[in-house]
Specification:
Blueprint lengths: L1 E7 L3 E7 L6 H8 L14 H13 L3 E8 L2 E9 L16 E8 L9 H14 L6 E4 L6 H9 L3 E7 L4 E8 H8 L6
Parallel strand pairs: 5-6
Antiparallel strand pairs: 1-2, 2-3, 3-4, 4-5, 6-8, 7-8
Helix pairs in contact: 1-2
């Protein structure tokens, strides 16, 4: 079932639906083990491990995952989490209205200019469509310069580096107002 839709002026329709851990595992396996997904830390995972990880997320009360589509075809993955309970416990001053986010675009044989930016804009618009969300928090690997640039393009500001068990991360936050200013009001009506 589709939970969110957004039409990009240039690239068309993007949508999100709740991820099916078992049904989507084979598809996701190709994405999370691709060399461009090295920062997902699942390079050696098999399909069973991918399904297990997304069943764990689906069962978690403060973490969920969504399959994103572009023009009706699977094209990206988005995760939403409560940073007071997942990922940033003890590493971040959580505030009411905070939501954490991860996203991953599917590998493409022929890259489409502006696609990844349209995906992150869609994910952010989806998160901010919930009135209770005041701020999105992310913690990408400090070496992931491409995602740092994308985050800045949609309004994130860097809080600073943090050390997580699996990586050194760059904690960044984006308020609704920062997102709207960066994207010129790209929220659904």
């Amino acid at each position: 079932m589709t939970v969110f839709r957004r039409v990009d002026d240039r690239l068309g329709e993007f949508a999100l639906r709740t991820l099916d851990p078992d049904g989507d595992a084979a598809l996701l396996h190709g994405w999370v083990t691709h060399p461009k997904a090295a920062f997902w830390l699942m390079q050696d995972a098999d399909v069973a491990r991918v399904a297990q990880e997304y069943r764990r997320i689906a069962a978690h009360p403060h973490h969920d995952a969504y399959l994103g589509s572009w023009r009706g075809r699977p094209a990206f993955l988005a995760e939403r989490y409560d940073p007071a309970h997942v990922e940033l416990v003890g590493l971040h001053d959580a505030a009411d209205g905070d939501v954490g986010m991860h996203f991953l675009c599917a590998p493409a044989d022929t890259p489409v200019h502006g696609f990844t930016r349209a995906v992150i804009t869609t994910v952010m618009a989806w998160l901010f469509a919930a009135p209770a969300v005041r701020r999105v928090v992310v913690e990408p690997d400090v070496r992931n310069h491409a995602v740092h640039a994308l985050n800045a393009a949609v309004g994130f500001t860097v809080v600073g580096p943090i050390r997580k068990p699996e990586k050194d991360a760059l904690l960044s936050v984006c308020t609704r107002e920062m997102f709207l200013a960066a994207t010129r009001g790209d929220l659904p009506a």
